[in-house]
Design the sequence.
């Protein structure tokens, strides 16, 4: 029997695994994504080997050496689950992951994709922009508003040992640490079927953990600490503005008006929002330009904002019940997936979050 090349075996196993875990819709979706997934995984190199063999710039090498320390901080100081993710890097992978999400034009109703392992999610990822554009066209044909955005990283939630991408080494220390800790958070708590809660939980924990990591290192890296403070300032202002916009639109969508009248008023609200946003004081250029006329603003974008920023005040309140001790909050949160399994469809992750408190 002829020997089958190892890479072909790996690719076949990868496709088979993806068919089992991402049946959406069937293996047709999987087949389109398997090539990009295979290229990403097949090119993985252990970090130490990469540092010794790849022609990194001094800045890239310095960032790469930070990653094990960031992971160790998350695991040892925050209590996030140990994972083999980010123990390797693909130094040649230059593709972009494209996330596509759809929403009704006249109400906040997301188009959901049903994954049998992780549950329903309000977005789908593609390695190829043409595939993302095809999905955009399909959703638009069905009457959905569509938001397509690039993703600098993603997680397979433990199904594969996710590598770093070389492009991540161009990020500042705050963004790199936040992303690594965010993905570790996903590996720690994941509630099947509730993408909004999962992303909000990981976003909150990632933000808190990255802040603690940089605060403890501000003497050795004051620039990163100042950048974090500027980003926090703009982020708080941005989230408050967007949440107010969401709340205003929710009032419109619940007013019982005709679809045509809702759409007409929505466009006027968006025009006013862009004008008001431009007059706010921003410290960072990225935030200042976020609602420029060339940037999309519709329900599809806003519903993704809600996915990643839902009910943040409830996370803050929960952390305060643990006297601000993030490891204690993380440890208590580990019980949530088991509660979901025990309670089934009756499980409400937000009610469970509100009930989290220190033992005794």
Sequence:
């Amino acid at each position: 029997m002829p020997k089958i090349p190892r890479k072909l075996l790996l690719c076949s196993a990868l496709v088979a695994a993806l068919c089992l875990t991402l049946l959406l819709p069937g293996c047709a979706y999987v087949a389109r994504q398997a090539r990009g997934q295979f290229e990403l995984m097949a090119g993985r190199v252990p970090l130490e080997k990469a540092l010794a063999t790849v022609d990194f710039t001094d800045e890239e090498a310095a960032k790469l050496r930070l990653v094990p320390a960031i992971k160790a901080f998350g695991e040892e100081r925050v209590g996030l689950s140990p994972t083999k993710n980010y123990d390797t890097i693909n130094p040649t992978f230059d593709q972009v992951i494209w996330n596509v999400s759809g929403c009704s034009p006249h109400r906040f109703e997301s188009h959901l994709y049903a994954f049998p392992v992780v549950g329903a999610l309000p977005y789908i990822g593609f390695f190829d922009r043409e595939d993302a554009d095809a999905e955009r066209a399909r959703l638009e044909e069905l009457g959905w508003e569509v938001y397509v955005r690039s993703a600098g990283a993603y997680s397979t939630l433990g199904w594969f040992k996710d590598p770093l991408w070389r492009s991540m080494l161009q990020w500042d220390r705050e963004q790199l640490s936040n992303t690594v800790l965010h993905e570790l958070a996903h590996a720690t708590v994941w509630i099947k079927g509730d993408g909004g809660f999962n992303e909000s939980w990981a976003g909150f924990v990632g933000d808190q953990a990255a802040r603690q990591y940089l605060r403890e290192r501000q003497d050795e890296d004051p620039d990163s600490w100042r950048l974090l403070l500027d980003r926090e300032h703009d982020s708080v202002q941005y989230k408050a503005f967007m949440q107010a916009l969401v709340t205003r639109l929710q009032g419109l969508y619940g007013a019982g008006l005709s679809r045509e009248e809702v759409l007409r008023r929505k466009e006027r609200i968006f025009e006013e929002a862009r004008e008001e946003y431009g007059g706010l004081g921003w410290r960072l250029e990225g935030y200042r330009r976020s609602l420029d006329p060339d940037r999309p603003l519709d329900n599809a974008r806003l519903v993704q904002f809600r996915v990643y920023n839902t009910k943040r005040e409830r996370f803050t309140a929960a952390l305060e019940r643990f006297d601000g001790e993030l490891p204690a909050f993380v440890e208590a949160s580990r019980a949530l997936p088991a509660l979901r399994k025990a309670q089934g469809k009756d499980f409400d992750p937000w009610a469970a979050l509100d009930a989290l408190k220190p033992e005794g």
Q: What stands out?
A: The beta strands are 45-46, 88-90, 97-103, 113-115, 119-121, 124-126, 145-151, 164-165. Residues 91 and 166 are 5 Å apart (CA to CA).
